[in-house]
Amino acid sequence: MFHYFEAARVESWLGWVFNFGLGSVLFGLPPIGIAAMVLSAFSLATASVFVLNQYFDREADQENEVKSSLPVASGRITPRRTLVFSFVLVVVSLILVVFSNVNVLPLFVVYLGLWTVYSTPPLRLKSVPVADFVLSGVGAGFLPFLMGLGLTDKQISGSSIMLSAMPLILFHCGGHIIQAVGDYEADLKTGVRTFVVKYGRKKGVIVAGLMFLTATFAPFLYSALGLLSYVHLLLFPLVLPLLVPIILRYVDLLRNPSTTNVINVQKTTKKY
Fold it and tell me: Which 3-state string (H, E, C) describes 35-54?
């Protein structure tokens, strides 16, 4: 069972859970029981996405120095069992949604469909430059936030939703590009045409950095436009010390956009 849990790659989508949680509490608190069930459904759906992606990426992952040890790429889980496991996760997830809050079922269907076309031929959008990181931003940043938002009964304007979600979308677009920098050699060898493969690692790191900066300073822009209270900006002095080690690692990555430096950035980000 450990192999199947490892294939779910929970550590890779904790940020997605944060986006879901933020959406569920930002404009009002939902009933705890229903929120817990929908969160469980979201976790299972997300795990199924990562398992399915490993099925289609198993050959590329075998060429990747980091991902070659994953259960599917290493052969600890057979391709057939991988598909069955992903399917079971989807079914259980949708059952939980139906019994807890059927109103968010369409969002779950869109979420699963979006990530399926990301990984699955013939579309396989992860191999379409620009579409690869845009889809990641929507699928990992916007949709989880929207699914959590679906738990509240309050009427919320579309502008408020988009302003809240935009920094999340940008962070995940940038994060996807950084991951692609780390996967560059394996993707190039196996013909996966990501944005980074087409335009180069250096440009990828620069574009991702601009996205991170825009997302970080979005609250300042919102406050300047009168859309957000300046009181919220008092939190930045508390966050800034945690950002310094990450920024230093990012400077190293900018100087040398290697897989090793990508791993260092990811480890430092998770730590702080």
Answer: HHHHHHHHHHHHHHHHHHHH
| Assigned domain for 220 exists | yes
CA–CA distances in Å: residue 186 to residues 16, 71, 136, 150, 208: 25, 17, 19, 38, 20
Number of domains the chain contains:
1
Cβ atoms 139, 114 nearer than 8 A: yes
Read off the pLDDT of residues 211-265 as tens digits, 9 standing for 90 and up. 999 999 998 999 998 888 888 888 888 888 999 999 999 999 999 999 999 999 9
Provide the domain limits for residue 53. 2-227
DSSP per-residue letters across 79-125: HHHHHHHHHHHHHHHHHHHHHH-GGGHHHHHHHHHHHHHHHSTTT-G
10 Å CB burial of residue 168 (0-12, 13-18, 19+) is: buried
CATH code of residue 12: 1.10.600
